[in-house]
Amino acid sequence: MNGSLFYLNLVMNGLVQGLVIGLAALALTLVFAVARFPNAATGDLMTVGAYAGIGVQALNVRSVIVQGAAAILACSVLAIGQYWFVLRYLRGRGLVSLLLASIGLALATRGALSFFVGQDQYLFNTPIMRPYVIAGLRVQVVDLWLAVASLVCVTATFAMLFLTPVGRRMRAIADNAELARASGIRMQRVMIPLWAAVGAICGVAGMILGIKTVVLPEAGWHILLPAFAAMVLGGLGNPIGAVVAGILLGVVQELSTPFVGFTYKIALSFIVLAVILTVRPQGLFGSAEVVR
Amino acid sequence: MLSYLIAILIVTGIYALLTQALNFHYGFMGLINFGHVGFFAIGAYTSALLTLSGHSIALGFVAAIVLAALSACPLGLLALRLREDYLAIVTLGFAEIVRVVIVSEDWLTRGTQGLANVPRPFASLGASGQEIAYLGLVVACNVLAAALIARLAYSPFGRLIEAIRDDETAISTLGKYPAGAKLRVFMVGAGIAGLAGALYAHYITYVVPDQFVPLVTFYVWMAMILGGVGSLPGSFIGAAILVALLEGTRFIRDLLPGVMEIQMASVRIFLIGVGLVLFVLLRPQGVMGLRVRT
Q1: How many angstroms separate the CA atoms of B200 and B71, rounded?
Q2: A75 Cβ contact list (under 8 Å, min separation 6)
C-alpha cells in the first residue's frame, strides 16, 4: 500500500475518533464554563446513550435516527436528574466537592447500567456499504454520516449558545456568575437547559462511539481522559477550542498508532497536553488568564 | 478469624498511609491530586521488581519511596505553575499513563500477567508470627508518616504551607516562593504513597495492573472525606470506615439471593458511587473534620 495513502486513511479514522472526543470535550466544557467543575460523569453518560440506542435496536427499530433520538432523550433525562437531585445542592461548594460527586454519579451510573446489561459487548447493525474511493483514499459512508451528525450537533450547540436568550444567559454566567445573578438571571432556568444540552451532546457522542466501536459498560469512561485533555488544550471553558482540540487529539492518536502501538493511545493525549501546556499554559485557544 | 482480623488491619493500615499522604496533599496544601494510585503503583512495582531480581526488601522499600517521590517532580513542575484545577486532570492522566506503561512494557513488568512471588518479609517467624510482624511494620510506617507530616505541619515550613493555602498572592508578595513549597509537599506525599505501594506488594505477594485502576484513587478520596479533610487522626478513622464499607459489601451478597457473582461487581460499584455522592452531600466535613475550608 502506498505510504502516504496509509497515513491519509489513518487521518480519516482519526477525524471520526476525534469527533467523539470533541463532542465529549464540548459537553465537559459547557459544564466547566457554567457550573465550574470537570464533570467526570460525562463518559458514563455517553455509555448510557449508546445502550439506549442498542435498546431501541433490540426492539427491531432499524432507524439510526430513532435510535439516536432515544439516546439523546435518555441522556438528557439522566443529566437533568443528576443536576436536580445531586449537583444542584453543591453549588458554591468548590471544585473538589463537585468533582467527587460527579465521580460518584459516574460510578453509580456504570454500576446500575452494568447490573442490568451485563459485561457482554453489543454492536450496532449498520448496513454495510461500499466505501467511496477518492484517489485511493477509502471513505466509509457511515463515517460521512457520523461526521454530518456531529457537525449538526456542534452547530446546534453553538446556535443555542450564541443565538438564543438562554444561551446568552449561559455565557453571562460563564463570564461572571455574580454579575449575572445581580442582573436578574435565574440559575435554575439556565441550568435545566444546560444539562439537557449536555445530555443531548453526550447522547450523540455515545451513539457515534457505539457505531464506530463496540458498546461496553466502560466504553464512555475510556473517552473521558482524552476529553479532559481536549478541554484543557482548547483553553478551559472555550467550546470552539474544545471541539477543535478533540479532533486534533483524535488525529494525533491515530497517526501515532503505527509508531507507539495501540495501548499508548490514552497516554499520548496527555503527553500532547503536557508538551503544549509547557509552551502555552492557557491552552491552544484560551486567552491569557486575568489575575483575579 | 484472628488471621482475617489481622489481614483487615493490614489493609486498613495501607489505606491509612495512602489517606495520610492525600491529606498532606489536599488537606494541608490544597493540592487536588487525582492520580494517587499512580504513586502507589510505582512504589509497588519498584519494590516488587527490585526484590524479585535479588535485592533486599529494605532496598526495595527505600527505592519505592524515592522513585515515587521523583515521579511527582516533573508532574508537579508542569502542573503547579498552572491553574490549580489543571492538577486534578493532569494527575488523573498521569495515573492512567503509569498503568498503561505497566501493561505495555511487558519485558519489565510482565504486562497484564503481573509479577508473582513477591517475597514477604519475616518468613522465619512462621505463618501467624509473620502476619503479626507485618502488621507491626505497617503500624510503624503509619506512625512514622504521621510523625513526619505532623513535624512538617507544625514547623515554620508548615506555617508557610498554611499561609500559601489561605492566600497565595499575599505570601508571594512577602518574598516566599509558593510553587517550590507546593512541589516539596507534592513529592513528600507521593513518597508516602510509594511506601504504601511497597507495603501492599510485599503483603499481597503479587502485583498486576488491574490493582492500580483509578477507582483506588477515588477510594482514598472517600476515606479522606469520611475521616475529615485536614485531620490526621481522621485519616485512620476514614480508612477504617472505608475498609469496613468495602468488606461489608461482600456480605450484601447474602442479602440478595439470585444475584450472580458478576453482577455483584456492578452492585459494589453502584453502592460505592452512591456512598460517595451521599457523603459529599450530607457530611462534607467528615467524621473528624474540624477545620473549615472554603
Answers
A1: 19
A2: A45, A46, A48, A49, A52, A199, A200, A202, A203, A206
* B218 vs A: CB within 8 A: yes
User: For chain A, which residues make up each domain, given as ranges?
Assistant: 3-279
Architecture of the domain spanning A3-279: Orthogonal Bundle (1.10)
CA-CA-CA-CA torsion for B141, B144, B145, B147, nearest 10 degrees? 160
What are B1-52's pLDDT values in tens digits?
778 888 889 889 999 999 999 988 888 888 888 889 999 999 999 999 888 8
- What average pLDDT does this structure show over B74-86? 74
CA distance A22 to A253: 13
CB A69 within 8 A of CB A185: no
pLDDT in tens, A109-129: 998 998 888 778 888 877 777
How many Å lie between the alpha carbon of A145 and the closest alpha carbon of chain B?
32
Alpha-carbon distance B222 to B224, whole Å?
5
d(CA A207, CA A73) in angstroms, rounded, equals 12
The cell numbers describing B17, all together, are 498511609
Residue keyed to cell 439506549: A52
Test B89 with A232 for CB contact under 8 angstroms. yes
ipTM: 0.83
Give CA–CA dist A113/B269, Å, rounded: 10
Chain B residues whose beta carbon lies within 8 Å of the beta carbon of residue A38: 85, 88-89
Closest CA to A100 of B98, B217, B80, B99: B217
Nearest-Cα distance to chain B for A100, in Å, is 7
